[in-house]
Amino acid sequence: MKIKNFLFFPSFFQEEAYTPSSFDDFDPSYIFLQKGSLLVKDKESISFDGFLDGSMQIFKIANASLTGTPLYVATLSAVILIRGKDKLLKDTHYSTSLNLILFPFNAYRQLIPENNILLCEFEKRLEKAIINSGGKLFSEADVAINKKGAISVLNEKSRWLTCDLTNPGVAEKSENKILITLNDLYNPARIKEVARSRTRYILSLLEFYCLYKFYQENPHKWIMVDGLIPPIKRLKASFGDIDAFYKAIIQGSIGFIKNPRKIPEKDVKEIMKLKQGEYRLYIGMGAESEIYEEGISEESEEPFLFAFMRFRSSPFIEEGPTGIIKLQIGDPNDKDREDINNIIYAVFRERLPFPSDKKRFFNESFPIEEAEKVAKSRLSSEDQIKGFMHSLIPIHPY
Fold this sequence. Notes:
Elements: E1 8-14, E2 25-27, E3 31-37, E4 50-64, E5 70-83, E6 89-91, E7 96-103, H1 105-111, H2 116-132, E8 136-139, H3 150-154, E9 159-164, H4 188-217, E10 223-226, H5 232-239, H6 243-252, E11 253-257, E12 262-264, H7 268-272, E13 278-285, E14 303-310, E15 324-330, H8 340-349, H9 366-377, H10 382-392
Parallel strand pairs: 2-12, 4-10, 7-9, 8-9, 10-11
Antiparallel strand pairs: 1-4, 3-13, 4-5, 5-6, 5-7, 11-15, 13-14, 14-15
């Protein structure tokens, strides 16, 4: 008896979270501006109204026949918590979530043309399964501004994106650039690396979407963002011409980078000697190595104002990287703005209360930690992803 051909074979595995390294990218181009201290302050003139963090989880749900290429599902969420007059943190309607299907579709079509019919059947089955669950399926190409655009797609409820890992997708302007070669289809480690980097990139778009919606309704509020706010060149392909609105956003948003990677090459010793509440201000490139496991392109890097500060300290640790954080403050043209010290002091105030995770004691802000907890609670569960896998990929004999 001949067994029917199958495109994918179920294989479920939850990928471990990627933890980036710290202080491993030494940049000689950073320009030192000034050193400051927050230990004496006359007036607290700035405080944060909101806190943004995102979370993601990646699952391998199957392997492709003939090549073993993994098929991934990623679940993402971005959350903005608002601090009320009672000082309590509350979730908001700006918070949102998204699911991804990640696979090198075009590369697989080229290498295994005899499976094209099966692949087309799978894509139809995928869309039907998502529609039956009350969702709506888009391709990553729909996120581009010359198609539907990120705002139009992300305004939809229960949306899914299919991401073809063969090319960079919305992460690059060049559609001809190849990320996954035909030989890479046999290399699951390479597929995982690209899938994780693409997921993190789309999460940064989802987080910026939350910022965008927040500032539409709250143009004069201050918000702390976990991580790096993407440079505008990265966003134009998905959000269009938002230069003026983007400038307003970065003037009221502070990127809180608790595990900085890129640091000034010439000033490493001075940064490591900072005492609690002291900071050093620089102009430097907004390196995406702060975010992505695999850099996409340096062409879209832009200069920002950055400050290195010792957020918390210990009487037993006077020097070194412990407690050193990096703040993304805004445009370099704003280097003479009078409220820079007040902005950094507003971050310094967030050292209390302490985070519940004592492993993050020295470099985590309590509100950001709480936003992360809410973001994780919004992710699709392992059981939900397993149920989706079984509805999409039939169990069959080997």
